């Protein structure tokens, strides 16, 4: 198959494109929500570049609104984004030969959506000397979509019709990402435990239930995987 | 100003997590116990976000026929399992949400 940087870049962007259906409404919701929490438009847009992590930006706004202390905010965002370490581990051997500037750039662009696009490609055929251009294409497509959606949210702000269930784009996008990841019985148990604990702890302040539920799920998976060896 | 400080710290931490294995590749071996934890992290954190958003959209458990989000999510999960297609999952989920009575 024909392989070139331009070709790979385009394919990466195309692989990411379907995810924008969920990401764009989600970005708009984030923009509007962040404004309503008292952030300046500049801060709202800056966060999309500085953090570039949708669910974490959402959480950040909720914690800001709840008046959470800085340490709690950083700890929760850190735990929520810990999953990116897995994505980093999956991508690492494939880009080990690249110069540092590529590694820094691809690390910055590494998100749930980019990872999903990369996994899809790995399942098919992930050879070719220019495959890092595919990763770049996927990452840049998401980055551009996210920035534009955020800007649209800031611009439209409260003018978005309240009847539009745009916030449902977040759970729906995550369902599309998580379900294909659940390939073993242990992972199914992990999801079950995390979900039930999240419901039980939803009343905790500062969204701490999210932290407890995620840790409970991970802990159960970790123990089960250990018991099976 | 503390908002900006908090934002920058969160951004740096997120970038450090994303860079972790990419930077360590071939140099540092991470503890096996941590590697064993990794496969469960995305499923655990994302499910912990999804479930309350679907079952407790207004802060209390809502298990009823008129919770359109619940049935839209069931449809989305089924479609995602069958097709592994993001587009179909999102399309099907939003379609059920829009068409669900109540």
Detailed description of the structure:
- The complex is a heterodimer of chains A (229) and B (102).
- The longest helix of chain A has 26 residues, at 131-156.
- The model of chain A has no long low-confidence stretch (mean pLDDT 90).
- Chain A is 75% helix and 0% strand.
- Chain A is mainly α.
- Chain A is built from twelve helices and no strands.
- By secondary structure, chain B is an all-alpha fold.
- Chain B has two domains: 1-30; 40-102, no CATH class.
- Helices cover 73% and strands 0% of the residues of chain B.
- Chain B has five helices and no strands.
- Chain B starts with a helix and ends with a helix.
- At the A-B interface, α3, α4, α5, α6 and α7 of A face α1, α2, α3, α4 and α5 of B.
Short account of what is shown:
The complex is a heterodimer of chains A (229) and B (102). Chain A is an all-alpha fold and 229 residues long.
Q: What's the tally of helices of chain B?
A: 5
Order of SSEs of chain A: HHHHHHHHHHHH
**How can the largest sheet of chain B be summarized?**
none
Provide the number of structural domains of chain A: 2
β-strand amount of chain A: under 5%
Largest beta-sheet characterization of chain A: none
Class inferred from helices and paired strands of chain B = mainly alpha
Strand elements of chain A, count: 0
How large is the count of helical segments of chain A?
12
pLDDT averaged over residues of chain B: 92
Count of individual domains of chain B: 2
Principal-axis shape of chain A equals globular
Strand fraction of chain B: under 5%
User: What is the terminal separation of chain B in angstroms?
Assistant: 45 Å
Poorly predicted sequence stretches spanning 5 or more consecutive residues of chain B: none
Would you count the extended β strands of chain B for me?
0
Mean pLDDT level of chain A: 90
Radius of gyration of chain B: 19 Å
Q: State the oligomer.
A: heterodimer
Report, as a whole number of angstroms, the end-to-end distance of chain A.
Answer: 41 Å
Chain pair sharing the greatest interface:
A-B, 86 and 65 residues
């Amino acid at each position: 198959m024909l392989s070139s940087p331009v070709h790979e870049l385009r394919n990466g962007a195309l692989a990411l494109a379907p995810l924008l259906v969920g990401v764009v409404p989600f970005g708009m919701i984030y923009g509007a929500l962040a404004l309503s929490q008292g952030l300046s438009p500049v801060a709202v847009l800056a966060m999309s570049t500085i953090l570039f992590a949708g669910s974490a930006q959402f959480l950040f706004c909720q914690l800001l609104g709840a008046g959470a202390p800085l340490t709690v905010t950083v700890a929760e965002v850190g735990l929520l984004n810990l999953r990116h370490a897995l994505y980093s581990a999956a991508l690492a051997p494939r880009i080990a030969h690249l110069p540092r500037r590529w590694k820094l750039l691809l690390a910055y662009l590494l998100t749930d959506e980019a990872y999903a696009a990369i996994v899809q490609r790995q399942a098919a055929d992930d050879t070719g000397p220019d495959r890092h251009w595919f990763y770049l294409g996927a990452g840049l497509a998401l980055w551009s979509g996210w920035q534009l959606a955020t800007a649209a949210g800031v611009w439209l702000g409260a003018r978005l019709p309240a009847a539009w269930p745009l916030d449902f784009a977040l759970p729906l996008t995550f369902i599309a990402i998580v379900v294909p990841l659940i390939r073993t019985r242990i992972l199914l148990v992990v999801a079950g435990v995390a979900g039930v604990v999240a419901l039980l702890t939803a009343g905790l302040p500062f969204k701490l239930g999210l932290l407890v539920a995620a840790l409970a799920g991970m802990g159960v998976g970790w123990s089960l995987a250990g018991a099976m060896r | 100003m503390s908002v900006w400080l908090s934002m920058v710290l969160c951004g740096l931490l997120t970038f450090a997590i994303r860079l972790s294995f990419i930077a360590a590749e071939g140099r540092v071996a991470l503890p096996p116990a941590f590697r064993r934890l990794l496969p469960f992290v995305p499923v655990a954190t994302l499910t912990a976000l999804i479930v309350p958003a679907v079952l407790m959209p207004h802060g209390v458990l809502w298990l009823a026929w008129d919770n359109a989000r619940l049935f839209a999510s069931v449809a989305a999960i089924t479609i995602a399992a069958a097709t592994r297609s993001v587009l179909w999952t999102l399309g099907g989920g939003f379609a059920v949400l829009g068409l669900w009575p109540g």
